[in-house]
Specification:
By secondary structure, this protein is of the alpha/beta class. The chain has eight helices and five strands.
Length: about 180
Amino acid sequence: TAIESDIYTFDLEQKRAALFTIDGPQRIRGLAGSGKTVILAMKAALIHLQNPDAEILYTYYTKSLKDLVKRLITRFYRQFAEQDPNWSKIHILHAWGGFGLEGVYYNTCNLNSVLPMKLVDAKAMNANDPFNYVCQELNKITLKKEYDYALLDEAQDFPVNFYRICRQIVRNNRVIWA
């Protein structure tokens, strides 16, 4: 398939990034189209295989990415196990979320008994960067740890305050961003 041929053409650095898990923060760099999403999906599958009880967050910025990420994780996981991943342990969430759409910001607010701010209200407070504004406000409190690993795809699109949320909600600073 196309995914296998992509993996075959990975260079040594890409393979190393995908196959090795560091116990702490890790950054994966690459140009657009270089395979960062594939590497993160592979990392999620491998982490789940090695730590089946770990709570894994995979977050992204573009809403249309969810189905692709789920397919990639499933495909990589099936290469080593004869079953699908346990989707109660892998949480593929949009960064913001909202009413009817789970997301890191929205779920974190609910878990911490904070009323999530709606986009229209956030735009009234900061029209230029409403997502950064809501993240900055949420970072004013100490958040409950919810995940063992956090994988951030499309990380160049996230404001610094979103990274801070992710670091607060993950145990042992295991944040991997691409």
